[in-house]
Design brief:
Blueprint lengths: L2 H30 L14 H32 L4 H12 L3 H34 L7 H32 L4 H28 L2 E3 L3 H14 L6 E4 L10 E4 L6 E5 H6 L2 H16 L2 H23 L3 H6 L7 H16 L3 H22 L2 H14 L8 H7 L5 H9 L6
Parallel strand pairs: 2-4
Antiparallel strand pairs: 1-2, 3-4
């Protein structure tokens, strides 16, 4: 161990303390308000539904505490515990080609991490989600999903990691610029590929077959100047009782997707308003802004990796004896979240700002009252707590608290 080891342990322990403190606040605040529905929602959400949301939130937060400890232990096992160093030596013994050995090391660590975490994931799906009536997945469906995810990890991860390691070794001192360009290109490719190739591997997508609703949506799209590859309904109920809507893809592959659970639970006016909100993200250029921000942050990350990969203390501080590109990339991917956790409130603030802007846009092309009713229904059906702790919400949540969001939308009702 060296000085960096203690810096790493300090940030790791600080992040653990912060997460536990935030979770404690969330549990205490939600529990305190469990027995009383907020006045703004008292006519739409009854006390049993409110209490279910509170209990669901508390259970998930307590489960998160277990997950926090588990992930920290796995991280320490791979780093200071010598796991990566041992696996790196094993890869070198079994594979003579350096690029293939490095690719194997990185994928092995991520696959092992996934496998180690499967028991907790199974508990969350088949116990916690089941307890509150949200799990619709069967054991066979769960196994199929795991196999598909692993297959995709290998099919997409092998060429990407191999390409990154090749760039790191072949493109000279400024390799990190080329690596950034490679990752950026891969991200665009995945965004284009996801709607038509990857998503259908997991879910069935069918064209919306409700003529009246489809006509209303087409009129909304025309008013918003949005061209889409199609309006689809996804069989989200195959795995979960939660409902959602989104649009995905770029260029001529943009798709509007509704969960079947959402289509079944909302009226045509409410579905139109929800879609208007999603289109608001597009019209306000939030997607473009997020892509630019992601590109800038990725560039900054590769810049740091380009420097830190040449520092012996970085490797020895994390108990890795081999100072090579594969170890540098792997260590950076594993430990960087420990040092960037404290930036999360900034990201959350920006995301909440985008949500307000999208709501404002939706209120101009659809009925604000319909969007409010849709949100209330989704809060109830998804068991989203109406009373999150303010500090916890500011730190983590990408969406404004229910009461704040509804109050923001209410000012536009008179314009309907």
């Amino acid at each position: 161990m060296n000085e960096f080891s203690f810096v790493f342990l300090f940030f790791l322990s600080s992040s653990l303390v912060l997460k536990f403190w935030l979770n404690h606040r969330q549990i205490a605040h939600v529990t305190k308000h469990r027995d009383s529905v907020p006045e703004a929602f008292s006519r739409q959400i009854d006390l049993p539904a409110h209490q279910k949301a509170a209990d669901y939130t508390v259970s998930n937060t307590r489960f998160a505490n277990i997950n926090i400890v588990f992930e920290a232990c796995v991280l320490l096992l791979f780093t200071l515990g010598g796991g990566i160093d041992w696996l790196a030596g094993l890869s070198d013994q079994m594979i003579s080609d350096n690029l293939l050995a490095g690719t194997s090391l990185i994928l092995t660590v991520f696959i092992l991490s996934h496998l180690i975490g499967l028991p907790l994931d199974c508990y969350h799906t088949f116990v916690l989600e089941e307890r509150f009536g949200f799990n619709r997945s069967t054991v066979s469906q769960y196994i199929k999903d795991q196999l598909l995810q692993t297959g995709l990890m290998l099919a997409l991860g092998v060429p990407l990691i191999y390409g990154l390691l090749w760039v790191m070794g072949a493109m000279g001192v400024y390799w990190w610029v080329y690596a950034w360009a490679l990752v950026l290109g891969f991200s665009f490719f995945m965004t284009w590929l996801f709607p038509t190739v990857i998503a259908p591997l997991f879910n069935k997508f069918t064209l919306l077959d409700k003529p009246e609703l489809k006509e209303r949506i087409q009129q909304l799209l025309e008013r918003c100047g949005f061209n889409s590859d199609g309006i689809y309904v996804m069989d989200g109920s195959r795995r979960s009782g939660h409902g959602n809507a989104y649009f995905t893809g770029i260029g001529d592959k943009k798709r509007i997707v509704f969960y079947d659970t959402l289509v079944d639970s909302l009226s045509p006016d409410e579905i139109e308003a929800v879609l208007a909100h999603e289109l608001g993200h597009f019209k306000c250029k939030h997607i473009r802004k997020q892509m630019i921000s992601s590109a800038i942050l990725t560039f900054a990350g590769f810049t740091i990796l380009g420097w830190i990969s040449q520092q012996a203390w970085f490797f020895s501080g994390l108990s890795v004896s081999q100072m090579n590109n594969a170890s540098a990339l792997l260590l950076f991917l594993l430990v960087s979240p420990v040092f960037t956790l404290f930036l999360e409130p900034i990201s959350s603030y920006i995301q909440r700002k985008y949500e307000f802007e999208a709501d404002t846009y939706a209120s101009g092309v659809a009925q604000a009252s319909s969007l409010i009713q849709a949100l209330v229904t989704l809060y109830r059906d998804n068991a989203n707590t109406l009373t999150p702790d303010p500090i916890y919400s500011d730190f983590y949540h990408s969406h404004p608290p229910a009461s704040v969001r509804i109050a923001h939308l209410s000012q536009y009702i008179k314009k309907d």
